[in-house]
Amino acid sequence: MSSLQGYVDHRVYLVLTDGRSIIGTLRGYDQKSNIVLSESVERIYSADSGVDEAQLGLYLVKGDTIALIGELDEAMDKAVPLDSIRADPIQPVHW
């Protein structure tokens, strides 16, 4: 992964290779792109009941499980009513 320095202390959105979506504040990373997040939550998507959030708190993500990482626009994210979103969960990535 290219440098993550610009994301430190910012809210980020991660999609993991197992299909999970994690949001948190990036607190640190290492040369293997392992990520430390604080105030993190997992968004659990459902085609039937909308989006649930599971509180994770301080969370370590192994770099080789990250498929995508990007900065989260918090104003735009708060404007979207999560209970109205219906979506199938993301399927795991198979190498």
From TrEMBL:
The keyword Secreted does not apply. Coiled coil: none annotated. Belongs to the snRNP Sm proteins family. InterPro entries: Lsm8, LSM_dom_sf, PTHR15588, Sm, Sm_dom_euk/arc. The gene is LSM8. LSm subunits form a heteromer with a doughnut shape. Its main location: nucleus. It comes from Auricularia subglabra (strain TFB-10046 / SS5). This is LSM2-LSM8 complex subunit LSM8.
